[in-house]
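One thing: mind reviewing this one?
=====
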Amino acid sequence: MRAWPLLLWVAALLAPAPLFAQASAPIAVSTKIDDAAVTVYRAPSRGGGPIDPNWPQGFAFITETRTVTLPAGMSVLRFEGVAEGLLPETAVLSGLPDGVVEKNRDARLLSPAGLVDAYLKRSVTLRRTSLATGKVVEQDAVIQSGPNGGVIVQTAAGVEALACSGLPERMLYPRVPRDLSAKPTLSVLVESKAARTVKVQLLYLAEGFDWAANYVADRGTDGKTLGLTGWITVANGGVTSFPGAQLNVIAGRLNKMYSPPLPRSTPGPLVLKCWPMDITSTHPLWELPPIIEYEQSYDESAAAEVIVTAPRRDRRGMPPPPMMAAPAPPPPPPPPAEDLGDLKFYRIPFRVDVSAKGQKQVALLAKDKVAVEQLYAATLHDFMANRLQPLSMQLRVQNRESDGLGLALPAGAVTVFETIGGRRLLVGEAKIGDKAKDERVDYDLGLSPAVQYLTVVKNDSDPDYKLWQVKITNARPFDAEIEILIPFALDPAPEGWERRGSSWVWRVRVPANDSLVQTFRQKMKGG
């Protein structure tokens, strides 16, 4: 029985701080980020498609360094300006000598809709223009509903919708609620043995970020090389900017568990709706005469005089306009990727502004002469037999140093150009997955109407076999290098052919304006 007081005393020490401790504790606010590092991970399910501009589906690991001033005793430390998509369960705070008691993600932002939501069933001051006297008057009101679907207020005169009188009116609030902030905020309940100023580091995961790789390839005039440049596009869909941040990106597919949807920062836009009334201002616009805006900003005759006289003044010996300064060279590409497990880690070698609601492009690579070969490719299938089919035009690059590349290439889209008659013209676009060093990279640029093939499938005398006849025609004035993937067993097995997984690769060159025929014997069982 004597053990019970001791157990109760230990439980009191281990119990979390009471709720009233945070409500009555003084508040210390951190509004400035001294330094930030943003490491962005691609959206796991996006594939090679575009980044969602409204709310990117990737995430970022953010490291913030801040200087905070704490009072002695228990206090609430508010980190204003964290990322909007902060996941509070991932936040780690280091640098506080006496530790952290509690942390909360303050989701509600200071906004017209947020104020209405915070003052539901509470008194505000309604400032409006009197319909009877035309004077500005103030009266007490209670917000009964809002902010979505209209704001209903109750005054001494009754219940009405806000902003439906046709005259100016506004609501005045006695104070800003403690739980409303102008920026996304993380609140931490801390206890400090003495008043002090310390430098802390805040680390957390945040949703609403994403990045993608984009490449531009220019084929050389010799047709055997291309110039390849790469760019990283980083998107920040939140309302928080990170100026001068150390930016990094992670390539590869990271296994990320499901996170519950974040509470939105505001309850949505403030919507004011009124009951329909038959007045002029509520008639549809198409029932009113059109409004034509015309602004004459200058005299046309004077403009003509300027255009005519300017060349004359130049011919009379006036100095020519100064030459435009040469554009600044593009920033250097980042150093080669580093290994992060089986992922690739790219460091941007200069500071970057990761702006709110914006996208940023930085250089990834720049290679002048990368060896390339042009192929026409196809895969044999039963359902495509007895029909003339175009082959896919393909550019193939071997990602190795001896061929002018040899870098880890993150997945992305490539745009291919070729110079014809002095003009740079678009050849096509293609998508690639993540490619490791020394791996083959194929750019599929679309179907070619000039290089086609026809397959005919027949039964063999042996029911365990099928006979395939493939005819390839090349209507181009140049030879065409053909690669046909055969995804089944052949009997007899061809000599000198490449074996790619369980498939065979048939490589052949078809002369210009010519054709050839090849027969295969498919083994239906075994193989």
In short: Helices lie at 3-14, 19-24, 112-118, 300-315. Residues 1-21, 282-316 have pLDDT under 50 and may be disordered. DSSP finds four helices and 30 strands in the chain. Residues 120-172 form one domain.
